[in-house]
Design goal:
Blueprint: H1 6-21, H2 41-45, E1 83-85, E2 93-95
Antiparallel strand pairs: 1-2
Length: 107
């Protein structure tokens, strides 16, 4: 019988358990996520639209004509993608040309 220190045994057991839980498969990518629909309750609450040019800049809290999801600090993903993940709509994509009331300028 081998003598393994208790701490080492627990570390090895945890690593083995974690390895057993990993299921190989395809990696989730943004393109697999659904797109936010303008008629969803959350989208309506945030006044989200797919096309920022349809919103009057004067009606915005931070009036500026160049506000869109592509230049918002809350949007993630690669620049240039037409649809990107947003922190406001977890698990969904927003249009890069879209806009909502939570828009914040990138730092």
């Amino acid at each position: 019988m081998s003598k393994i220190a208790r701490r080492k045994f627990i570390q090895l057991s945890a690593a083995a358990a974690a390895g057993a839980m990993v299921v190989p498969g395809k990696e989730a990518v943004a393109q697999d996520m659904p797109k936010v629909e303008e008629d969803e309750a959350m989208a309506q609450a945030m006044k989200y639209v797919h096309d920022a040019s349809t919103v009057d800049p004067a009606s915005r809290a931070n009036p500026a004509a160049e506000q869109n999801c592509a230049n918002c600090a809350l949007v993630q993903g690669a620049d240039g993608d037409a649809w990107r993940p947003c922190q406001i709509f977890p698990g969904k994509l927003v249009a890069a040309e879209g806009w909502c009331t939570v828009w914040a300028p990138k730092a």
